[in-house]
Amino acid sequence: MLFKILNINEKLKDALSILKFVETTEIQSKTLPLLLSNKNAIIVSETGSGKTLCYLLPLFNHILENKNHCAIIITPTKELCRQIYSQILTFKQHIMELHPKLIIGGESSSNLTKNNFLNTNIIVATPNKVYELLKNKLIPVNFNEIILDEADMLFDLGFMNDINNIFTMLNKNIIKVACSATLHDAFANKLKKFFLNTEIIQNAKSIWKNNNVTHTVVYTKDYDANKTLKNLLGNIKPYLCIIFGNTKNIANDIYKAMVEANYNVALIHKDLTNHERRKIFKEINSYTYQYVVATDLISRGVDLPYADLVISYGLPDDALWYIHRSGRVGRNKKGGDSFIVYCKNDDNKIAKLIKKGIKINYSLVTQNEFISKPLQLRLRKKIVFDKETNSEIQKVIRNNKSTKRVKPCYKKKIKSQILKIKQKKKHEHIDKIIKAKFREKLRDKAKNKQ
Fold this sequence. Notes:
Blueprint: H1 10-18, H2 26-36, E1 41-44, H3 51-65, E2 71-74, H4 78-92, E3 100-103, E4 122-125, H5 127-135, E5 145-148, H6 151-156, H7 160-169, E6 175-180, H8 185-192, E7 199-202, E8 213-219, H9 225-235, E9 241-245, H10 248-260, E10 265-268, H11 274-285, E11 291-294, E12 309-313, H12 319-326, E13 336-341, H13 347-355, E14 360-365, E15 370-372, H14 387-401, H15 410-449
Parallel strand pairs: 1-6, 1-7, 2-4, 2-5, 3-4, 5-6, 8-13, 8-14, 9-11, 9-12, 10-11, 12-13
Antiparallel strand pairs: 14-15
Helix pairs in contact: 2-3, 5-7, 14-15
């Protein structure tokens, strides 16, 4: 579908034309007619499919048609807030009626007054800041529209209480939009509480399959992860490469090693100040760096349009986070590569990705070349827990569900309690095996003496 045939304001059409937006993506063609008619919607589509414009264009059109129309856009991270705000500013150059304001966590709002929000018709903010502004009556509660971007991440990161409080303060007839790359049952059930009479619009494609991205596990003969990364970097020449570490400490170690080897590299993790983060993203977008080392802080939603390569130094525990990492490339029908630096104990995680339908290639990487060679995965046998253990796990889940008030990070607490139960049973299982082997050795010694 062409943007120019949409039933939208001429100013918006002109802005799209100047910014060289010509044709809609698949999800945009399904979503725009619905949202332009003021309907509620939950938009589910893979990363890089153009979900942001799905809600921004109808919002801009509403503001052009009604000068009193205003909206709140809520996202889980500061980086996403800045990215969306930057996109709005791009359109503001051609649509002067847009008056956005960025409010993010980590920046003090104690000096803000109602005067700071005069004429503001779009607020882009993190959940805790929106709740703070509403609670302190710095912004009006009669907003016309609320948008949750990366909605599944908002709930997964424990923002459920803030979201619940925000919805109780706002007008019940408000237009509601949520965007997500995934839609699982638990997430859908949570959204039902807020999104009544809502249509779910999603692409039929599996989030686990992206034909634009090639997945390759790389390793060395001695399975040394540091050596693998060193050899890999010596064999590639990316335009912009993002290297993900599972923890802040791992990211720091990779960054230090690359700086010592004179790579043009930047580092991003949660301990950086807002000023430092803004500076780094500005430099990345002006082609200052060829490599970016980061934690999963930027694995979801953040768009680095010139990235053509992703490297995962080890795999995250949740396979979905790997999909978000690899989704930083292969966006907007462009090709990209995702390399997984093989780390010991990652075998079951690789097997899980294969089970999800991801085609994995394997390469032995030397100082000079890639050699296509399958890796023999050493899979751990899954321990089947007895009825007593399973009933103990179910009891933990029931006790948490029966709590009237849902506490922050309750999911993590449940997982932690279940993990302790499983670990206890695994240790008991291992002890039994060790004792059985010990008894067997004693028997063999007794036989030999006879």
